[in-house]
């Protein structure tokens, strides 16, 4: 899953990558959490022939998808992720998969490795970022929820897929990433049915992301500074530390035997 991410790019960088006319002027955000507003990219309304307006636009929406048929969001679970393999078959996401596919710009995401119960190890947070830096575009879905009084809230979820081998030791899921050359096809809900973009909802190659161990400061939504992405030495349980010391001693003994 993807429960926290960051976006530290400038508006100018977003304009260039996504071909936007304008984007909100926003500060770097190092700890974006569910229910917070996020920037998403959607297809623009159909332009008139000869128009030079961009094909995409940026919107601010709430991270936490609410289907239009929900009567009371307070009684409905917060849907921050959608499984790409089954989204089109689920009532909550079916319409959005066909009509409201979006891109979610990010600089990377956080994931937690949670050891088995009884191992004595503490959960370890990781900052997962593109090896080459820059902005990544997560695949997402959007829905506008309308209340009885007529007010509207734009909401979104991030699509996930099975983790590649680099991420799998941390978690078995990861966000779907859409490459720039596929932006237009993913956002084209007029001519591209969900089955025709299914090939885009696969894990990125193993060399795309790198996972950096970070402190548990990211667990608290109130922590929002760049130090959240500082690398730390992963904590080890006493048993793991004991095994490592034994392995180190064995390596030392093996090297000494060469002389």
From TrEMBL:
EC number(s) on record?
Answer: 3.4.-.-
List every stretch annotated Disordered. Answer: 224-259
Highest taxon listed in the record's lineage: Bacteria
Q: Which UniProt keywords apply?
A: Covalent protein-DNA linkage, DNA damage, DNA-binding, Hydrolase, Lyase, Protease
What Pfam families does the annotation carry?
Answer: SRAP
Membrane-spanning segments: none
Q: What class of enzyme is it?
A: hydrolase
Q: Which family does it belong to?
A: Belongs to the SOS response-associated peptidase family.
Name under which the protein is recorded: Abasic site processing protein
């Amino acid at each position: 899953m993807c429960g926290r991410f960051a976006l530290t790019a400038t508006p100018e960088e977003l304009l260039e990558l996504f071909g936007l006319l304008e984007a909100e002027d926003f500060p770097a955000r190092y700890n974006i959490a569910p229910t917070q507003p996020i920037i998403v990219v959607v297809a623009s309304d159909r332009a008139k022939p000869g128009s030079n307006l961009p094909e995409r636009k940026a919107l601010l929406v709430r991270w936490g998808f609410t289907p239009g048929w929900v009567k009371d969001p307070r009684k409905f679970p917060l849907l921050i992720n959608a499984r790409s393999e089954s989204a089109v078959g689920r009532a909550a996401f079916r319409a959005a998969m066909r009509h409201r596919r979006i891109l979610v710009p990010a600089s990377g995401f956080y994931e937690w490795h949670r050891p088995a119960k009884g191992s004595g190890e503490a959960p370890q947070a990781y900052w997962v970022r593109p090896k080459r830096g820059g902005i990544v575009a997560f695949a997402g879905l959007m829905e506008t929820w309308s209340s009885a009084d007529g007010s509207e809230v734009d909401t979104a979820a991030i699509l996930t897929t099975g983790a590649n081998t680099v991420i799998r030791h941390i978690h078995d899921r990861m966000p779907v990433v859409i490459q720039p050359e596929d932006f237009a096809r993913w956002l084209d809900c007029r001519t591209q049915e969900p089955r025709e973009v299914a090939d885009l909802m696969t894990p990125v190659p193993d060399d795309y992301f790198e996972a950096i161990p970070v402190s548990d400061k990211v667990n608290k939504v109130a922590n929002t500074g760049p130090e959240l992405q500082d690398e730390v030495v992963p904590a080890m349980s006493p048993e793991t530390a004991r095994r490592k010391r034994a392995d180190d001693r064995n390596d030392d003994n093996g090297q000494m035997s060469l002389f």
